[in-house]
Amino acid sequence: MTHSPSSTTSTSTGSDVPGSRAPDAPHLERSLGNRHIQLIAIGGAIGTGLFMGSGKTISVAGPSVLLVYVVIGFMLYFVMRAMGEILLSRREYRNFADFTGDLLGPWAAFFTGWTYWFCWVVTAVADVIVIASVYLRDLVPMLPGWATPVLAIVVIALLIGLNLPTVRAFGETEFWFAMVKIVAILALIVLGLVLVLTGFETSAGPSSFTHLWADGGFFPRGFTGFVAAFQIATFAFVGIELVGTAAAETRDPEKNLPRAVRSIPVRILLFYVGALVILMSVMPWTEYSADDSPFIQVFATAGLPAAAAIVNLVVLTSAMSSANSGIYSTSRMVFGLATQNDAPRLFARVSRRHVPQNALFLTGVMLLASVVLLVFGLGESTAFSVVTTVSSLCFMFVWTMILLSYLAYRRRRPQDHAASRFRMPLSGVMPFVVMAFFAFLLWAFTGASDTLAGLLATPVWFLLVAIGYVLIRRDGAHAAQREEFRARAAREKDEAARWRTEPVERV
User: Fold this and answer.
1) Model pTM greater than 0.90?
2) pLDDT for 179-200, tens place per residue?
3) 127 contacts 51 by C-beta, under 8 angstroms
4) CA-to-CA dists, residue 341 to 21, 47, 345, 477, angstroms
5) Looking at the domain assignment, is residue 506 inside a domain?
6) Least enclosed by CB within 10 Å: which of 8, 93, 236, 498?
7) What pLDDT does 43 receive?
8) Within 10 A of 132 (CB to CB), how many other CB atoms are there?
9) Is position 71 within any domain?
10) Domain tally for the chain?
């Protein structure tokens, strides 16, 4: 039995929804096509976390790291399904900060928007640090030490330049960045498979799938090592929600967004699990260094220095792609915040090509923090570990806000949920399961001194955001927004109650 189609139509208007705009207001253009959004979805989730961080996850967990990536990917798939269903329920939603404000209240849009901005700024800082202090120096080792901060400045200028022209230019850049990563990982899998099947002799013995269980078992570090891997592996998945940030600039989102979200399980199995299975089969997991990319190590150990150099270029491209995505998403989030009076109106301005360039420049200025860290010698794994811990925790907050918004959406708009063509599977139970998993991750982050330090420092950010919100909520426009939200929520609850009790028709 289903409710009649007429009963599934919401009475909310565009003006009721945060993110709606007047016809003459600054706006973004829907210039991203299907191939752009598909590759952005892939590229956002394959960055330094996989290419750089997987060396550390392998060293702390051994082969059981495969299960770690599967579990995290499984849980985040449901976050993406929740996000996709809500975004497609209202055309006016530009990103998830819009729908958190619409469903949870103006405070939620403020906290989610600014925290997501902070997430990507921190992540992009980590990317710039690794690009300048590791990848570029590996390519040009004769550079003096003072050149590293200069390289970071050049990288930041290049990334800002890639985002300034048009959103389509960003889409094309990210498309080819992602293509390089995809081809490289597929090449690694094919070449590694050949090495394993031919029993290629490495310095650690012949390549074999038996390395997955013969060198201390599948859980060589025990339960402690298995849990420790969650701390690091979580960062590999930041950016998986990037398609939600690009929703306002996507052509035909009703078709392209579901395609991108549905491809997540295949991406995880192929690019994460498949690549790591090959890596740990070519060489025992004990041979990998926590501070180096296992992709480069595998080719160097196999006696293929030219291939290792090529992989180094690929890893550099991957980090550039991740930072490029971060700059894009932060500029769009600040633009959205500014249009809702949650950020200075200066950042609501767009260029003639509909790019929020002022918001873009703000991110560029914040990325200069990477230069400061490098000047004080906090490069490579030290700074990378610090910033990725904070970033992972803040992303977990954003993912949780998406789930809380979904619960509010189901409670207040059951008619929209019933009419949705992209309903979240197991929607009655999985939001609670995933949030329980996030609680487990918080506990896991207490297991090591560096991640515990990040966990203890992260609340400082939320304190700063809370202070900011207390200051701006005194504004008359914010008071009106809160009153509008309360009225809208009450109206939607009444509509939901009527919908649940009205006669049901068979279709």
Assistant:
1) no
2) 887 787 887 788 888 888 888 8
3) no
4) 13, 33, 7, 8
5) no
6) 498
7) 63
8) 26
9) yes
10) 1
